[in-house]
Amino acid sequence: MNPDTLAMAFVGLYYETFDKSRADLGSLYRQGSMLTFEGVKKKGVEAIVAKLTSLPFQQCQHNVSTIDCQPSGAGGILVFVSGSLQLPGEQYPLKFSEMFHLLGIPQGSFYVLNDIFRLNYA
Amino acid sequence: MNPDTLAMAFVGLYYETFDKSRADLGSLYRQGSMLTFEGVKKKGVEAIVAKLTSLPFQQCQHNVSTIDCQPSGAGGILVFVSGSLQLPGEQYPLKFSEMFHLLGIPQGSFYVLNDIFRLNYA
């Protein structure tokens, strides 16, 4: 699978899972994975899932605007996403950007080694 | 230098150089460096500098809002920036986000291996 195709497939899977069954995101991380969410740092599957499932909203809808991808010097790919996030009770969506470093695993799949998320406030 | 300190120092240097003497950014890249600027991909110092110096504005002012940093599995660090960009003749600044993978070199300095930039339009 070429990097751009993998990036698009991953981004689709990630936000669909986030919006529908957030606890299932754990399958995309490993023990060495890092998440920085709005400046809060977490490491490892359990801490990352605990953070993502404790966010102060139950429902959300990510709408992806752009997906950029580059090969990483570490192997795998860097994926950079911009888009908007619709939260319940909010009139306007919030803009966000997020980056991932995806690493392949021998079985042909991949996981998230690095994940940094930021809202882009007005 | 710890990663957060390096990230802050790099971000300060990068945007100060960008805003004051953009052509000098070449010293921060190497031949294997990659830039994706608003979806346009460039590789290598010359192509990257040519892209950055040909942007359709002469003056600009980056204002950084957030800097996040994680160690990369490839060595070096991943730096994720959000902020705003004031262009001449524009009433309002444009929001942007940008990521870098910085790699160290034996002399104790570092260079940009990966660079992805996006404006976050309203």
TrEMBL record, chains A, B:
Domain NTF2 residues, every copy: 6-119
| InterPro entries reported for this sequence | NTF2 (IPR045875), NTF2-like_dom_sf (IPR032710), NTF2_dom (IPR002075), Nuclear_transport_factor_2_euk (IPR018222)
A Pfam family matched by this chain, by name?
Answer: NTF2
Localization recorded for this chain is: Cytoplasm; Nucleus
PROSITE patterns registered for this protein in UniProt: NTF2_DOMAIN (PS50177)
The superkingdom listed in its UniProt entry is Eukaryota
Q: Which keywords does this chain's UniProt record carry?
A: Cytoplasm, Nucleus, Protein transport, Transport
GO (cellular component) term, any one = cytoplasm
GO annotation (BP), single: protein import into nucleus
Q: Function of this protein?
A: Has a role in nuclear-cytoplasmic transport of proteins and mRNAs.
Protein name, as recorded? Nuclear transport factor 2B
Q: Which organism is it from?
A: Phoenix dactylifera (Date palm)
Quote the gene name from the UniProt entry: LOC103719808
